[in-house]
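Hi support team,

I'm filing this because I wasn't sure whether my run with glycine finished correctly. The job status page said complete, but I'd like someone to confirm that the output block is well-formed before I use it downstream. Pasting the exact inputs I used:
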Amino acid sequence: MFEKEIYADRRRRLLAIMKDSASEGKRGIAVFPGNADAPQNYRGNDYKFRQESSFLYFWGIDEPRFAAILDLDSGEEMLYGDDVDIDDIIWMGPQPSVASKGESVGVSATAPYNAFAEAVRKAAASGRPVHFLPTSRYYNTMLLSVLLGCPAENVRKTADVYTSGEICASLGLTKAVISLRLIKEACEIEEIDKACEIGYLMHTAARKACRPGVKEQDIVGIMEGVTISKGWGVSFTTILSQNGETLHNHSHHQTITPGRMLLIDAGAESNTHYASDFTRTLPCSGKFTPKQKDIYNIVEECNELAYRLAAPGIPYREVHLAVAARMLDGLKGLGLVSGHIDDMVNEGIAGLFMPHGLGHNMGIDVHDMEDLGENLVGYDDDQTRASQLGLGSLRMARRLKPGHVITDEPGIYFIPALISKWKAEGTDRGMVNYAAVEKYLDFGGIRLEDDLLVTEDGCRRLGPHRLPIKAEDVEAAMS
Ligand code: GLY
Ligand code: MN
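And here is everything the job wrote out:
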């Protein structure tokens, strides 16, 4: 948890933005339900608790069954939560009072948890606009749906609460929260650096464990152990597979085999829930084959290019397209594609090899704020999302600003089903040399990912240490 002034200042800034949303007396309230415990199977055997990220950002309390309301007319704040009773003390031990928890985040007014529901109902019944963020958990979706009498799907979509005519998540509140959370404060960057150090340690442990005969699952266990011993745990389900061409491969049943490559995309949360996200692709026998190294070097150059281009003012969409051009140039050198680079970029040929975007925002969530709407988070108002494979999956296209934290994660994959689909449908317009590409059908995939902080004059890689990335450095580290 940060100093209480951090949270109070965030709420002050949010209030200042929301004051422009309507004239005084008509603005209504902003409601923030924190997360409740979620049972894995029966009540009493819950998933490990993870607080709702915007609640954590503005109200700081990392415990279940808290909620808060910010009155956008009066500026009053109220924190809702229950003091423990003797039953709770028997099972959980003594706990600080809700009042003292409120005090620790700069909130002086508190009330029992159930009073939150009453306050929301009362505001809605009296015609006051109720602003809320799109929810990610079903519990809060159902809670708001019941309290406000709107369909559950409306709780997850955003609209202007003053004009939409139906009750939905508040577009104004959502945009205000995004504008604040996108620009990371110094205390947040410190936490992300810590998460990146844990990410460095987990990937280092994985690299040391990666040798023929070891089970992929063993390496996952070693990596995830690091995250629990050094921080809160993983920032997303670990992706680790020798079938790296499957972008989010969570099956770890194979044995490390000489001659293959192991793609590891994994990150950690610091104890305060800031994320890291790194990908490295390792040669299972310690050395890349010449064929692997050719593709690896193209991906590594793309990663470096994005790092060199990322700076205030440049849209990350343009960095994605520059990376696509560099990738196609490299693949052309290997005879896998042919044509003018600009034509290939325009036709989206890079999407066959990299069907995902160059990167995403990162912060309290590894894909920061995607619960609030991918396009609202990742696109400026004057940008529209493409439909092309690859560019269409770009989650962060915005003009970069100092304080943005983004990932730089190019990859090249040979996905047999996608290659045969493009071939059958002529999607490549004659620019893909299938005879050459089909020699890579058992190649797998390579992705290389670092986390970047946009600074005043460029960017810096987050974390105190960088994982080896040059092919020869990876081989040296594995020897
Ligand atoms: N690290 C997983 C992803 O960015 O989708
Ligand atoms: Mn990522």
